[in-house]
Fold:
Amino acid sequence: MAQIETELQLLKTEAINMWSLVNSQLSKARQSFVTFDKDLAREVVLKEKRVNGSELKIDRDCENIFALFCPVAIDLRFLLAVLKINSNLERIGDIAEGVAKYIIDAESPFSEELLKVSRILPMYEESVNMLTDTQDAFEKEDTILARSVFKKDDFLDNVNKSSHKVLEEYIKAHPEETSQALWILSTIRKLERVGDQAKNIAEEIIFYLEAKVLKHKGKFA
Amino acid sequence: MESTIIKSRNFNASFGTNHVVKNVNIDIPRNHIIAVMGPSGCGKTTYLRCINRMHELIPGATSNGEMKLNEEDVYQMHPIFVRLKIGMVFQRPNPFPNLSIYDNVIAGYKLNGIKLPKAQRDEIVERSLTKVAMWKEVKDSLQKKGSFLSGGQQQRLCIARTVAMEPEVILFDEPTSALDPISTSTVEELFHELKTNYTLIIVTHNMQQAARVSDKTAFFFLGELVEYDETKTMFTNPKDNRTQNYITGRFS
Amino acid sequence: MDGKNIKLRLGKSYGFQWLIYVLAFACLLPLLAILFYIVKAGITKINWHFLVNIPKPVGESGGGIANALVGSIIIILVASIIAIPIGIMAGVYLSENRRSRLAYWCRLSTDILQGVPSIVVGIVAYFWLVRPWSIPLGIFHWHITNKGGFSAVSGSFALAIMMLPIIVRSTEETLKLLPDTLKEAALALGMPFHRVIFKVIVPVGISGILSGVMLSVARITGETAPLLFTAFGNPYLSVNIGKPMQSLPLLIFNYATSPYTDWLNLAWGASLILLFWVLFLNIFTKVITRKWKVQL
Structure:
């Protein structure tokens, strides 16, 4: 195997490891959200350092491969995609940390009704699925799977759009849960950004595999 | 344990009054691949030829300074011994045209009059050809003449011939500049495998090759050693401006 | 450009082409004429007796050229033994040293030697080896003495001098054509210089060197003038190189101008043999050169 192939293979493995790391961060944050487990939340905050470290390493490795091997064609697209996916994943990691931080600071768990009305749990579930789907699409080089992520984002946008109204009404009805409701609103915004990041990642995957640029093209390419 | 196998201190070389290599100080670590790059006429090939004392064969060529192989000064040793320990592969593949592939590989022994039993000769030929990933290709046509091979195969045959002598260091003088891209990449893959047993010093005017292949790179310019560093550093953040200008193609 | 002009030019071109063919053929004519004439005159004279008998005295029929054949072979052999090693060594020296003073003088001498008339070479050999001389050495009446007298070895010596320039030049040219990379490859393997020359350079250039050698042999096979006052000739079969010896050109020279038909016949037959020998050597050289030529 040529030297560049070995290096690209290593980079792919590193990227997938980072994916798994961020995925577990997001999932753990969700878990702590559901069970109101502050210890788990603290774990997520601590692990954020690893996510940052991983991002720096992948950046450096990409730089080295560019400098040493002057890749072209699919290798070049792969590296450009990995660079961008890298920063997308890091931001998702930040969001997971943010959610965990809320849990640490929150005084009491969220009520069942609030959770149900806001639809935050299915939204959360879906965002984690989106991330997992992009990981699989990257690993298996599956553009169909990557494209399916766009549709999932619709659901997240939906929840996000309606959240303002829904929560406004809820606060009117349950003023004692205002603080929690506001946390939920914030978290919904954050999760919507997770969906956007996942969509960007999917776009990059399609770019790398098919050389098609889907950015800024609207919903359909 | 990393140790220095070749050390140069204040090394100079000239062709008559033409001072071509100026005051070179370099430490080459064992079992590494060192690339030596620079524009044409910068002294890199001359320096390479000084290491195994091929430079002095040119009439009017002189050199001075310290050049040590394993702490022994190469210029105090007999040139024949130096060349047995430091092999060289040239730009144009040059297998001996009147010898078969088999005889080419053990040419270093046979033509030097060293008599070896047939079993040992066979073993050396097989081992050397395996090291250059050619054994399977040619094992049924060992008696054919070397000049019927393709360019890339001829160059690998020359490498096998050098490797058969079990040198400690192998010098390469632009080894792939006469080859097509596929043969070039076959030879480049060899370098990584040879690294485990030998130290390789490769002069190349192709800096992408230097980047792909080497652990450390030395940049020569106008006879001086301008920069010598890890290849990764050299190509992402060189310390000297001249290096940066050369690598980015600001001047050739 | 009108039609008439073009026709004229085409005509000229065609005529010129035709002229070249005719002249080229004309070059072939002398060779064909010689071959034809000699074959016609000599072929009937050759038989087994012819090859194994020595010439009979005048008056007796029969006889052959055995002594001349054997003599030629011996003289050429000795000349080769003298000239080939010296010639190849000198050629090797010249190809390795392009610019030294010795190389300059060596090359100059070789060129001049090539132009020396063969009879002058013969005379020189006569004075050095055939006339008796002695050089005093020291005060105790020690001498280096040459008893003199015609001998085969003096003839070989003269012929060797004529062979030398050809061998030296062709060796030098052959070795000069070999790429430097060959030498470099050998040196880089730790070979001492003498081995590089004799185990690598010379074997690769062997076909060119050999062709030079064969050409020089073909050249001296028919040389008569140097042998006139050195080998001198001998009516009997002899293998003693210190004594006069017969050779084919000498026999032809002596017998072709004699008034006796027997001897004339011998001369014709000998001419044919000599012709075929030279022809064969040339063809053999070409075949061997092609077969042994190393594809670089």
Notes: Chain B has a mean pLDDT of 91. Residues 152 and 182 of chain B are 8 Å apart (CA to CA).
